Amino acid sequence: MFRFLVRRILGAVITLVIISAITFMLFYAVPRDPARMACGKLCTPDTLLVIRHNMGITDSLPVQYWHWLTGIFFGRDYASYGHCDAPCLGYSFSSRQPVLSTIMSRFPTTISLAIGSSVVFLIFGVGAGMIAAVKQGKAVDKIASSASLIASSMQIYFVGTLALYVFVYQWHILDQPSYTDFTDNPASWVNGLLLPWLVLALIFTANYTRMTRSQLVEQLSEDYVRTARAKGLSRRNVFFRFAWRGAMGPIVTVFGIDLGVLLGGAVITEKTFSLQGVGMLAVKSVSANDLPMLLGIMVITASFVVIANIVVDAVYALIDPRIRLA
After folding, report:
1. Which residues have C-beta within 8 Å of that of residue 259, sequence separation ≥ 6?
2. What is the pLDDT of residues 198-230, one digit of tens each?
3. SS3 label, residue 76
4. If pLDDT is split at 50, 70 and 90, which confidence band does 31 have?
5. Cα angle at 302 between 297 and 303, to 5 degrees?
């Protein structure tokens, strides 16, 4: 198991380096010059050169990337900002603040949104899929399948706006969505994020309902499951000991990827509910052409997806020891 995880971690590090290199080259090779944008209308060549030097973008792209990469491990010195301690992702072009600390200040909101919605859609999505599989062909199965199909076709910006209008502005059942630190006031934390949780979970619940149902229906038709039933094992024992374990693999895989993406920033949800998380920060950085911030968000988002895949591989190895040999 240890060697299995070491191989996955080494592969993840190489993947992140490749992703960061490609992203860096794409972002910094764009036609728009951030130094010229910061220079303003009355910009002279000398002033432009100074601004580029202060931003750390006077060298060639490979040299800039090397400085950025070494800054993550050893820190980096900037002409206008001074020393940036490791791990250093640079300084924002627009706010002049360290990229990493800015992203970390937004992370509690994004983590709360991702974890809370994940709990909701796992409970309701997997639960509804299990019931639909057990009641295959009956009214409950048809209702669950139809509801999941309708829900999966909806968009967050439409459902979120409608939910805000109905539950916040018309019926006054819920407060305006906002983020409060859990340690300060748990009740306000839940109340402020409840509506975004439900809206974000709606789409995922539909997907997990269909996926769980299809996987369980397939497993219940396998020969080894029917053999277990023929040997006299109870329906409940066969369902959870054999069918459910066989269906866990795809569900764990998709959940790991979904959670990694959510932790990287649920952009549309945060924008719809005006939550100041990583997703909202990414939207503002795109508008401001803030390349260091965009690069930092991209790398951290990719890191979460890669880490989620490592966790998924580890869970797979626990479920099926044969995978450890892969």
Report:
1. 114, 118, 304, 308
2. 998 888 888 899 889 988 888 888 887 788 778
3. strand
4. low
5. 100
Q: What pLDDT is recorded for position 325?
A: 47
Residue 90 region by backbone torsions, left for phi larger than 0, else alpha for psi between -120 and 50, else beta: left
- As annotated, the residues of the chain forming the CATH 1.10.3720.10 domain(s) are 104-291+316-325
74: Cα separation from own chain's centroid = 27
Q: How far is residue 267's CA from residue 277's CA, in Å, rounded to a whole number?
A: 8
pLDDT in tens, 170-209: 998 888 999 999 888 899 999 999 999 999 888 888 889 9
- Enumerate long-range contacts of 154-159, CB under 8 Å, 24 or more apart: 154/202, 154/203, 155/268, 156/199, 156/200, 156/203, 156/268, 156/269, 156/272, 157/268, 157/271, 157/272, 159/199, 159/202
Contacts of 94 (CB under 8 A, 6+ apart): 285, 288, 290, 293
Topology adopted by domain 104-291+316-325? MetI-like fold (1.10.3720)
Strand-pair partners of 230:
none
Segment 241-293, tens digit of pLDDT: 778 877 887 888 888 888 888 887 788 899 899 999 999 999 888 888 788 89
Six-digit token string for 191: 């109340």
- Of residues 221, 270, 212, the one with CA closest to residue 242: 221
Phi, psi for residue 78 in degrees, rounded to 5: -115, 145
Joined together, the tokens standing for residue 211 give 């996926």
